[in-house]
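ESCALATION

Customer reports they have been waiting on this structure for their group meeting. Please prioritize. Original submission:
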Amino acid sequence: MSERTRVVWDPSFTRYDFGRWHPMSPVRLELTARLCSDLGLFALDDVDVVSAAPASDDLLRTVHGEEYVAAVKTASADPHRADEQYGLGTDDDPAFRGMHEAAARIVGGTVDTALAIWRGEARHGVNFCGGMHHAKRDTAAGFCVYNDAAVAIQALLDQGCERVAYIDLDVHHGDGTEAAFWDDPRVLTLSVHESGRTLFPGTGYPDELGGPGAEGSAVNLALPAGIGDAGWLRAVAAVAPPLVRAFAPQVLITQHGCDTHALDPLGNLTVSVDAQAVAAALVHDLAHEVSEGRWLALGGGGYEVVDVVPRTWAQLVAIAVRQPLERGRAVPESWRRHVEELTGRPAPRTMSDGVSAGYEPWSGGYDPADPVDRAVLATRRAAFPLHGLDPEFD
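Update from on-call: job pushed to the front of the queue and completed.
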């Protein structure tokens, strides 16, 4: 197996653009790529920065309905013909010219990278333009038109992969990816998110465990609003590693929406870029433990486009290319100047939020009075026995 890392990027991915006032600004992608480049990550000898062609209609239809793909193409050609019954032309997913091609290109990048990993042409892959986890078979939702993660998972299964694990760390429940494989025991979907009681899409509770014959293939950890690094990392570490080890996937796919950050305008958690880097390192190490390092990392949500998204996803790329950034690493002055010229805003000076991002592991015991521990225990009690694990101690 090659030790190369594939990163999906070229400026054409910024064409996924819902408009000037939409929270998902494509500038977050340009600034992420520019920061990776200025940090020297794209120039490393064992890194391939690649573009992608839009996924074919046939490939999209492995997950999405034929009528839905046709509706996206119609709205893409003429936004005035967007059909809201498919989630198109809404405030969340306004139609724009070229929408089909832009969304399908994201799918193409994720699928190409997943299959390169499966074929042994790369060990790791990153598509920070991807992670569109809310799109369902017949509807756009939550800023997502096509579900690149789901199409990539299905492509791996179609190529003979027997088990794929998907970990979703976005602040929002990964409902679309979960729904795509609700009845498929070959796919483990694990979503760690803010509770649906306080945040869109209002789903993702511990008792949502998968369909008949696939019980335990869906796992959901719904966290209380307001928690920070210690609680979030404790929750991730208490649930993801034991379940993934028990499932023993051949490929691990992770979604790294950074809308868990304290500055994000759409979520209610208070996580730092430092904690997000710790979580990325955790799943990277887990991939090497359980799937021979076959790891595909995706972007996702993240709407603080200067201070948070570029630093979080550059840290993710650095981990994937085996060059994790030292704590407190200075942001390149060239990037800071670019940010200030482009946005008129001051740029952060370091890659850290200046916090320790530590946590107490579950093995030290739990406190039933603590809201984070209650949430973790609810998920462990619901899901762990279905994987042969002890919810109290494993």
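Sent to customer with the following note: Residues 5-53+104-387 form a domain with the Arginase; Chain A fold (CATH 3.40.800.20).
Escalation resolved.
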